[in-house]
Amino acid sequence: MTLTWAYVDLAERVLRLPDSKSGAKIAHLGQPAADLLRDAQRIDGNPWVIFGTLPGKRLSDLQPFWQRVRARAGVKDVRIHDLRHTFASTAAASGQGLPMIGKLLGHTQVQTTARYAHLAAEPVRMAADAVAQNLRQSLG
User: Residue 99: how many CB atoms within 10 A of its CB?
Assistant: First the structure.
């Protein structure tokens, strides 16, 4: 909610964040996120990406908006932070390793990332089958 346009680098598809839990960092953007930012409304004189209703101000409370989004989507128990877990789980299920997922999430410790990357049972079964098939073929 405190992201300003000055931190957005669409040419490099990154957010250059000067202050986070672990200090300054670069957050890499996927093309769909970069496209959304490129097309987002900008208000002259307002530096905030997520602007408020008052001139020059940012949105200060995301909960009313988030409650409307959840109601429309029919997912009343989903927290905003759950989106981060979903991102990590989707990355893990698509074959990304924990170090890469950690880099995407801005983690410095793989143990922190492991808490986010909950794998669905089916991708784990598929991986087990693939390894077992390879072993069977190797052992004859």
Answer: 11
pTM over cut 0.90: no
CA-closest candidate to residue 20, choices 102, 105, 87: 105
What does the chain look like in DSSP terms, one character per residue? ---BGGGEETTTTEEEES--TTSSEEEE--HHHHHHHHHS---TT--BSSB-SSTT-B----HHHHHHHHHHHT-TT--HHHHHHHHHHHHHHTT--HHHHHHHHT-S-HHHHHHH-PPPHHHHHHHHHHHHHHHHHHH-
* 81 neighbors 89 (Cβ within 8 angstroms): no
Q: 49-63 pLDDT, tens per residue?
A: 999 999 999 999 999
